[in-house]
Design goal:
Endo/exonu/phosph_ase_sf, 3 helices, Craniofacial development protein 2-like, about 20% helix, globular, alpha+beta
Length: about 120
Amino acid sequence: MDSTNIATALSLRRPLNGSGVRRISGGDHEQKQRHRLKIGTWNVKSLKQHGKLQNVIKEMRRLEIRVLGISDTKWPGNDRYKTTEGQVLYYSGKNGSTEPYGVAVLLTKETARAVRGFIPHSN
């Protein structure tokens, strides 16, 4: 066996010898951006407050998130809610209860078109 010391780079972007790393473009950047799917989660601590859902949608748009998992919605029952702008919120909570739970998935208008069904499992 060869006992030569093999030095590894401290960063994947820069080898030890100081030379630059050459990147090969994977195609049109705008094309990639259009097909990229950003998914996020947020504990909103209630969607019952006036304007809270609109604020969530605004932040979702700002961060370019297309699928947002939401916890602690505090909405009773389970259903689908379509906003005036076309986003779709699938939610599930406990029926007739004010317990501090409930979950939801908020989808952009474009992403919601791909959904074929919604089966709530629990709150």
